[in-house]
Write a structure and sequence with these properties.
This protein is α/β, with parallel strands linked by helices and about 450 residues long. The chain has 15 helices and 16 strands. Helix 4 links the parallel strand 6 and strand 7. The mean pLDDT is about 95. Keywords: Hydrolase, Metal-binding, Zinc.
Length: about 450
Amino acid sequence: MQSVDQVIRARWVVPVRPCIVLHDHALAVQDGRIIAIGPAADILTRYTAASTTHLDQHVLMPGLVNAHTHAAMTLMRGLADDLPLMTWLNAHIWPVEGRFVSPEFVAIGTELAVAEMLRGGTTTFNDMYFFPKAAAEVAQRMGMRATIGHVVIDFPTAYAANADACLQLAADLLPRLRRMPLIHQSIAPHAPYTVGDAGLCGARDLAASEKLPLHMHVHETAHEIDEAIARDGMRPLARLARLGLLNQHFLAVHMTQLNEEDLAISRNSGLRIAHCPESNLKLASGMAPVATLRKQGTPLAIGTDGAASNNDLDMLGELRTAALLAKGVSGDPTAFPAWEALEAATLGGAEAIGWGGETGSLEPGKAADCIAIDLDHPATYPVYDPVSQVVYCAGRDQVSHVWVNGNPRVVEGRAVDWDTQELFARVRGWVERIREKDSDR
């Protein structure tokens, strides 16, 4: 028998690639990587493990991948609700960011976000926010995989004076973050309406030279499209195509306002889309045409957006909303089947943010980033199809175990290596400061 670090046995194993349900199977894990998947009896015969986990009523599956976050904005959760996007940004979010955003703000906000995401079964996230070094350090320390975006924006912020300064900060920081094994990086121009042509070209060139993806809000609202046509004489996606930003390494976030020209650009460029249905619903921004995008073969990922506009980082909830909305918007109950929605929330997200070779599916050779969901629960019983139960029924409170790189981050529903109450105490200090200043305005 071969010695391994651990064996994880579950009633149902859903590897995502291939799209099958394996009954009473197990994973053998060594040095953080999956070395074998097979029937439990076979794995237990072939391997002796230092640790064995038996999950008798659970689905074992890849960790969820949150393809679009502003992690530190957990500190602004519930600060301003029930508002249109530009009112929300201009009157509330940007003023608070101008007063408070700092490396310390980003660190504590990201820590709260990582705690929430890990507890809910998300093992990888794709972030876009200021002071990316602070976010990367938190993710690495807490044992969560992340792609950290270097924000590019034209107007002055607490982080940088303009787009050129953002790009210089990114270029300086890139080598330092590469030393962190759980961190990948992207270049993240904020949006077509906040970055001019020069900044977009600079972001394009830096991403190309460093072989990094681009991560950007695009076509989020009808107002954005109208302003772009008035200002540039073209729709934002056409402008990005003209500037040479669009390819298979470009992740377009939201994409709620798409005409036939936009759909053709999306199809021909090979770009990927991060669909954020709950944020789009809450801000009444519109809805990505998932059924049409799926039919034309545009790769889809799923994200929550930030906790200030969602207001949670619950990928199981987001996955369910995405699957249901696609059916309702298209009038087709087959528009986004449970299996395809699950793939978008795991492997689709991993491939969109540069982690597809490492995570997003349970395969020999990949990192052991996996989660267990306990279906022995009134909300998910009886179980005819475990994938349908995960997508349409299960809540994040049913996530019992989480591993990243084979390291346990949640065990029996309890956090490993972080103290939630101590974290809350530090968050409360920021909340009081923000509440006091916001009430002064």
